[in-house]
Amino acid sequence: MTTTANKRHSEAKEPHWIEWATGMVSALVVVAMIAWVGYKAWTDEDMQPEFSIAVTERRPVEGGYRVAFEISNKATATAAAVTVRGEIVDGDNVVEDAEVTFDYVPAQSKSSGAILFSQDPGAREVRVRAVGYTDP
Amino acid sequence: MNGATVQRDDDAGESRDFLIGLGRGAAGAMLFGIPMLMTMELWQLGFYIERWRLFLLLIVNIPLLILLAHRIGFERTSTAAEACRDATIAYGLGILISAAILIMLGDIKPHMPLSEMLGKVAIQSVPASIGALLGRSQLGGQAGKDEDDGDGEKDQGEGGDAVPDEISTSYSRELFLMAVGALFLNLNVAPTEEIILIAYKMTPWHALVMIGVSIAIMHGFVYAVAFKGTHEIPEETPWWHAFFRFTLPGYLVALLISFYVLWTFGRLDDTAPTQMLMSAIVLAFPGAIGAAAARLIL
């Protein structure tokens, strides 16, 4: 309990048990959180972002063709301004390419996006890969 | 808006007081709402935020405003009905002020789809309504409501008595105030991209320091630095009593509020648990300051 008298607050001398219980639970959670972050601080080695890209959907849309994908970053470092380029490849020739930029691909997380081509790749191969990033 | 109240404002002085109250509310909504009304990310959130998360935020704001109105009005003998009325007026003022300023800023234009306009106003109305409520209590020396306690509503709440010299705030109310303070500061900073950018730039070592500093600031604000309204610990009580009973739960509240706000703004989607925690720790830093300040101010 907090007692307010004439705009001065002073804490009660004999608090209810529930205040102590809440305090203990909070202390446990905060300590657990510090332990978790501390564990991460000890064990994380310096890593560079590592991307893998999985195409999740290909479908024609109005005025073009959409290739949706998910990009995941397995490393413990976050990448910013990740540029992903998609190419339609016919034999050795690149028929069409298109780019998309992600603001962030956080560490050990996924982001999703799509590339819009002007034509249907049909049976031709579609390559999607990350071509660059910056450190945040 | 007078129609919402039970008694008629026959008395010219009374309706003048009411208008002054409205003016203070509007001033508060602007004072506390302007930083958010002029934040680009919040405009964008207005149209891309998931509608059910926005809905939840708007619903959560209602009991929050009522409890806050009751708490603020408590020292000035308000009843539950008055608290509901004040909360409604504050929410309404928040919506009106947000809409007016967004229109003035050219951020809402007639050709926009209705859902975009509504989304923008709705998301801004939450901090603005809290501001409206605070404005009425903090900007004026006397809220223009004191005359209301003569109309037979005394049986409705514990606030029916005359202003006591000494009141006790319950523990849950203290935690609630901290939550409001944390929520308010969080809403200010959470929509900006900087929060997640900071989380990405920080190493876990930085995060550990940040946790320590946040907790220390919370404790220092309330107990050590002699602000007006500083809480006193009785002489014979060791300092760590208050630390365990108030500061740590307060930090936990700030952390939970941070998670909630980040989730509402879609900052936690598809993110690894460690990254979520890092963002929440970053956001809990202003949250902790807000929570501590709320205990002093309110």
Q: Which stretches of chain B are low in confidence, meaning pLDDT under 50 for 5 or more residues running?
A: 1-9, 141-168
Shape of chain B: flat
Order of helices and strands of chain A: EEHEEEEEE
Strand content of chain B: under 5%
Shape of chain A: elongated
Radius of gyration of chain B: 20 Å
| Rounded mean pLDDT score of chain A | 86
Give the terminus-to-terminus CA distance of chain A: 45 Å
Q: What is the count of helical runs of chain A?
A: 1
Q: Summarize the largest interface: chains and residue counts.
A: A-B, 47 and 49 residues
Determine the structural class of chain B based on helices, strands and strand pairing: mainly alpha
Largest sheet: spatial strand order of chain A = 3-4-7
> Mean pLDDT across all residues of chain B, rounded?
81
Structure in words:
The complex is a heterodimer of chains A (136) and B (298). Chain A contains 1 helix and 8 strands, in the order ββαββββββ. Chain A starts with a strand and ends with a strand. In chain A, a hairpin with a 2-residue loop joins strand 1 and strand 2. Chain A folds into 2 domains: 2-43; 51-134, Lipoprotein YajI-like (Immunoglobulin-like, Sandwich). Chain A has one helix at 17-43; strands spanning 2-5, 8-11, 51-61, 64-73, 79-90, 93-105, 109-117, 125-134. Chain A has 136 residues and is α+β, with helices and mostly antiparallel strands. Chain A is elongated and about 80 Å long. Chain B is 70% helix and 2% strand. Chain B has 10 helices and 2 strands. Chain B has helices spanning 12-37, 40-48, 51-74, 80-104, 114-138, 171-189, 193-201, 204-224, 239-264, 273-297; strands at residues 166-169, 231-232. In chain B, helix 2 packs across helix 5 (114-138). The radius of gyration of chain B is 20 Å and the shape is flat. Chain B starts with 11 loop residues before the first helix and ends with a helix. Classes of the chains: A alpha+beta (136), B mainly alpha (298). Strand 1 (2-5) of chain A pairs antiparallel with strand 1 (166-169) of chain B.
